[in-house]
Amino acid sequence: MAFLNVEKINFAYPKSGLTVLDGISFSANELEFVSIIGPSGCGKSTLLRIMAGLIKADSGSVVLAGKKINGPSSSISFVFQDFALLPWLSNLENVKIGLASKPMTEDEREKTALEMLYKLELKGFEDAYPNLLSGGMKQRVGLARALVSNPILLLMDEPFSSLDELTANSLRKTVVEVLKDKKTLPKAIVMVSHNIEEAVEMSDKIVVLSNKPAVVKKVLEVRIKRPRDRGSREFRKKVNEIYSIFAE
Fold this sequence. Notes:
- This protein has helices at residues 44-51, 91-96, 106-119, 135-147, 165-178, 196-202, 233-247; strands at residues 4-12, 19-28, 32-37, 59-64, 67-68, 76-79, 153-157, 188-193, 205-209, 216-221.
- With 248 residues, the chain is of the alpha/beta class.
- The protein has 2 domains: 4-75 and 151-247, Rossmann fold; 90-150.
- Strands 6-7-8-3-9-10 form a 6-stranded mixed sheet, sandwiched between helices. A 4-stranded antiparallel sheet has the order 2-1-4-5, covered by helices on one side.
């Protein structure tokens, strides 16, 4: 059995009864980076929240490391598209929230949170508040908060979509570098994205969803040597393959 198994997930909006997810199944092995892509409004973010235990599916299951996910878990961290930082807390305090469930002293929490902030290139901004940060820096704080607890599963909901392309590109490279560190590397990463090039650049596997009610159109392996060159023939071939799936 794979490290993460998403099995036949079905979900309909309670009030309207509109089916959004129709039998979604895929898996992720240890140390695999999986992207979920699909048309806007097809239920990608809903699927990610079901995987996090934040929403209950109508049927189906999510099994992580042999255990069924029935609700929020300290083993799973979530990076939100809109940063979701608490504005009345400093950046350091926001990151320390990720350690709230850990049996640590206050000094240990502070030391661990500071190390993660520094790793995400935020040295000197520990005591600043989120409203003083750019979008890219806010997302770095969000990533630091998600990674500081050493989750075994990291879920990211379009983490770069609200950033300009230069900032997003810089942050993608930072994320790739941070995830090389075995101390903070989750066992599996699942990212929702609407950006095909981004998915090909970062992923080992890409799950392509249809329009709603969403079904899995195809699961693609990405076997391109890292670091990946967006201008390479191999890269463009994989991007074009995905575009052709959407055109079917």
